[in-house]
Every structure is written in C-alpha cells, then in structure tokens.
Amino acid sequence: MTSTCRGIDVSAYQATQDWAAHARDGVTFAFAKASEGQKSRDSRFATHIAGIQAAGLVPGAYHFAWPNQDATVEAANYIAAVGPYAGPGFLHWLDLERYGDGRNYRGRTATQIKAYAEAWIAAVQRAFPGQRVGIYTSADDIAYGHVPADVPLWYPAYPWGAAPYSKAEGATRPAPSGRTVAFWQFTSQPLDRSICYMSAADLRAWAQGTGNTSTPACPPFPGRDKFVLGAHNDFALQLQQWLDKGGWGPKYKVGPSRTMTALDLQKVAALQRHYLSALGPADGLTGPRTWQYAYEVANGLRSK
C-alpha cells in the first residue's frame, strides 16, 4: 500500500486557522492562496502562510491562473507575493482551472493555455531555483492537453462530498488520462483536504529537492569567498565542469592549480545575464543561486 500524508489548503474564504492544532491532528502540509491574475493578492495569505510555517508544516502557495493574460506578469505577481516566505522546502502551485463562465480561458486554444502554464512555471522556477513547482488542475484540463508533461500534479476530485482522510487513503489512487498525481484534493468540506502519495518524511525530502529524483542532489554551495579571481579550490573546478557540460562557451582547460580564471568569471557572468532577474548582478561572482543554476543546466534540469 502506498504511503500517504495529510494536508489542507486555504484562501481568504477561510478564517485564521489553529495550525498547531492541525499539526497535532496529523496534518503534514498546508498550502495558501497567494495571488490571482496580474494584480490580485489574497488578503489572508500573509496570516495563513506565517501560521503554516510557524507550525512546522510543509508550506506552499498557489496562484489562480488567467491563461488569457500575460504569464510573465502573472508570475511576477505571484513571485512578489510569496518572495518573503519562500525558501528551501517551499512548494509552488499554478491553479489552472476554468471559471464557470470561462472568463479566464476565453479566447485561448488548448495549445495557448499549455504555453501559458509552461511560461508561468519557468518564471517561478527561475525566481526560486531548487524549489518544486507544480500544477493544481482538473481532469478536463488534463484531457484537453492544457497541462505540460512531467510536472507534479495536485488533482481535485470529490467522489463522496464530506469525507475523512481515511476514506481517501483507502481508495484507489486517481489517474486522470493516465497521469500520475502526487496530491489528491478529495473534499472541500469542511475545509479543502488533500492527501499526498508520499510519507511525511518522503514529502519533506521531496520538497527539499532531495527525494524522488534520478539526478544526484546539487552539492552544497561552498561559500561566496571561494569564488574570487585566482581562488584555488575544487569547487572552482566543479563549477567550470558544469558550465562546459551545459554548453556555456567553448571548452577550456583547467590548470593544474585549479584556479578560477578571468575566462571562468566571464562564463559565470554570461549565465547570470541569461537569468538576470533571478541571479542578480552579472558580476561573475557565484552565489548560491548561480551555483544551483549551473548545476541544473549541466544536468538537463533547466533549459538554457
């Protein structure tokens, strides 16, 4: 039987929660609405997310999508809302679902909706490297081809109305259009409740980027003082190898002293310019985000 853990999601429609009590009751994760569209912010997000984090739950946030608007602008709205709270282990979700009257999908084809989702996810991944980004979406959206492949799925389907966690835990795992779902939101009564198809420990590891991956975890960033011109260390060699593997500039030799050369700094700066909004000044000096990006580009986890 697949291990699972329990969670809740909230928005401005829910009052302030006793998150410590939820944790005592066995809840492992909780997600809060942060934003919608290009400008709207959830009025209770700050209160909800602060309580979720204080209780030690796996935290996350979601953005309600308007695919007939600019994905980059919408992503910027979300990024600004969650920026003060997002750190290692924080989960990000695009809430991709059609309003009943279709106003947020109006005028868009399935291909355009999928492209919107891909652009939103890419922008959020650039802003929060190493953090998981997924999609909350319906069976219809999946069937209509709105959802990119190989993205974590949080799936809503309510077969029973109000139901305890135990009923969902004992049921067959949903597989809409043959897709594997990571989270199942199985009821909205009295709160939106979900189960995750990982144990609590596995979810925490996955949220940190160290679980359920065939690629070894990125080595820890060794410290900015290691990356100055003329530095002698194995980490300089590692960064050079990642940049070469990822196709940044022509192949170059690493001297026997393993020295960070001016050419190496130029290559780091080129990477920073490519992802300038996320990586900061293109100074060639490597911080944690540049280190993580170079690793992801080299290992095919991020497109150039």
Report on the architecture of this protein.
- The longest helix has 18 residues, at 110-127.
- Residues 211-215 have low confidence and may be disordered.
- The chain folds into two domains: 5-207, Alpha-Beta Barrel (TIM Barrel), CATH 3.20.20; 224-298, Muramoyl-pentapeptide Carboxypeptidase, domain 1 (Orthogonal Bundle), CATH 1.10.101.
- It has eleven helices and nine strands.
- With 304 residues, it is α/β, with parallel strands linked by helices.
- Strands 1-2-4-5-6-7-8-9 form an eight-stranded mixed beta barrel, surrounded by four helices.
- Spatial arrangement of strands, main beta sheet: 1-2-4-5-6-7-8-9
Radius of gyration: 21 Å
Number of strands: 9
What do the pLDDT scores average to?
85
CATH architecture of the largest domain: Alpha-Beta Barrel
Largest sheet: 8 strands, mixed, barrel
